[in-house]
Amino acid sequence: MMVDFMVQALNLGREALEAKEVPVGCVFTRNGEIIAESRNTVNETRNPTRHAEINCIDKVINYCKQNDIQSSLMFEQIVVYVTVEPCIMCAAALKKLQVKEVIYGCANDRFGGKTVLNVGEIYENGFKLTEHNKGDEAMLLLKQFYKGTNPHAPASKVKRKE
After folding, report:
1. What is the Cα–Cα distance from 137 to 144, expressed in whole angstroms?
2. In the chain, is it the N or the C terminus that has fewer CB atoms within a 10 Å radius of its CB?
């Protein structure tokens, strides 16, 4: 069952790549069923917080409101499948919501690892973090994206030698 959810996350990552977004896909499951899924929509929405995980969080909150369910109880039962290890923002949000587990495709040493902040400290006393065996596929999507340029990225502010 675990592979099916990561395959769906990878499909969402491919959708993001086709939409010229950083290719991250995410699936939230509860009791072995998908309850939310999304991809990055940062460029599409022009909102830097619209990561796949945040989009899924919003979907779960909306579902809980519509069905009069206490969202905190829902999040405690959620297992997250995401193609790339969550960034600092997403890891903090998932911890705050007390999700059960996060299963990721490839590591994110630049934005989710130890470069800026040891995100591992967020996981301690938070959720279980597990690396999935589909990491090579997730990394390939990232490499394909970064071969090109992000058409929505702000202009570089690096001063060049004249």
Report:
1. 11
2. C
- Those residues whose C-beta lies under 8 Å from the C-beta of residue 143, and which sit 6 or more positions away, are none
Q: Side-chain half-sphere of 98: how many Cα atoms within 13 Å? A: 6
Question: Catalytic site residue 53?
Answer: yes
pTM for this prediction: 0.83
Angle at which helices 2-18 and 135-147 cross, to 10°: 0
**Phi, psi (rounded to 5 degrees) for 86:** -55, 145
The per-residue pLDDT of the chain, averaged, comes to: 86
Catalytic residue among 18, 21, 37, 53: 53
In angstroms, the first-to-last Cα distance of the chain is 57
